[in-house]
Amino acid sequence: MDRAYAQYRTYVSRACGAAKRRSQTKGVAFGISPALLQCCERARRGCFVFGKEFDFSGEHGTRMWGPSLDRFVPAQGYVFGNVDTISLRANLVKSDATADEMRRLAAFTAIYRAPERRDITDAALAFAKRRLAVVRSRAKQDGLVFQMTAEELASILHPSPLDPRPFDFDNPLSDDAPEVDQFLPGGGYVFGENVTVVSRRMNRIKGAWTHADFAAVNRWMDS
């Protein structure tokens, strides 16, 4: 038995125990065993999403390449056909996104496209005026460039290929609430160059990950 396989066997034994406890807490199905995961040749070779060997050291700076047990569809639980062992990085990029959401994120992050400007509604303008003060303050605090008016922001508050559903202007905690996003984190809030508007859900999933991250996870989810 090679060292990497021995480390993988140790990992899946611990992972199954932790997954069983999580399944009870989350109220989802559990039907896997260490023996079942040990038979997965693909996972034993490392993270097939990024083509990297697993790092079992747990040392700071390498944890992203450690193994992580993923539920392809979270609500279906830890059952055969719905679990995979991938790297922690791949699991964090995937989050709880669906295959369709990941496909849209991979396309959206490929290249910056200035959002289409449309007629401004009263609801959009009211939201833009409220939100602009928050964004301006954040930019100042982070030392970032800020070049955008409320009217410009209001003109792009509409459904897009990334977020096809209408935005929810009334509930800031809704998954469909609009959020002002920097296409490239740290690139500043310059309208038409680095500013986008995405839903709260998509902004959470997007985080600070790159197009390469989304493209890799998208290929895996579509395979």
Number of domains: 2
Based on CA atoms alone, the radius of gyration comes out at 21 Å
Strand percentage, roughly? 5-15%
Query: Main sheet?
Result: 2 strands, antiparallel
Q: How would you describe this structure in keywords?
A:
223 residues; alpha+beta; 2 domains; two-stranded antiparallel sheet; two-stranded parallel ribbon; 9 helices; 6 strands
Explain what this protein looks like in three dimensions.
The chain is an alpha+beta fold and 223 residues long. It folds into 2 domains: 3-94, no CATH class; 97-223, no CATH class. The chain has 9 helices and 6 strands; from the N terminus they run αααββαααβαβββαα. It has a two-stranded antiparallel sheet. Helix 5 (99-108) packs antiparallel against helix 9 (211-222). The longest helix is centred in the first third of the chain and has 24 residues, at 3-26.
Task: List strands and helices in order, with pairings.
Layout: H1 3-26, H2 34-38, H3 41-44, E1 67-71, E2 83-87, H4 88-94, H5 99-108, H6 122-142, E3 146-147, H7 150-154, E4 178-182, E5 189-190, E6 195-199, H8 200-206, H9 211-222
Parallel strand pairs: 3-5
Antiparallel strand pairs: 1-2, 4-6
What would a concise description of this structure say?
The protein is an alpha+beta fold.
